Prior knowledge:
This protein has 106 residues and is an all-alpha fold.
Amino acid sequence: MKFKYLAAMTVALTVSTTVFAAEDGEALFKQHKCGSCHKLDKKTVGPSVKDISAKYANDDNAVPTLEKTVRNGGKGVWGKMPMPKTKASVSDADITTMVGWILSQE
Length: 106
């Protein structure tokens, strides 16, 4: 019986953590002005968040690839418009959280 409660609490905490991380990722995305170039489901200056998520859905290296691109900028993956590097004031933890949120969008 105790195992049942422990299992239920573990599942509840896991789901809660995922939800909070997703909310944090979206909040950080907005805070760091990523939405200036990337909209959730519409291409503007850069690709949409959903297009990024779809492109990397089956890529085992998606997280490190996107973290590197967000940190250092990039060019040529989505067209001619380069992505500028992220300000040094944005922490690696914030980038990881934002990348996790981006990849969770379907």
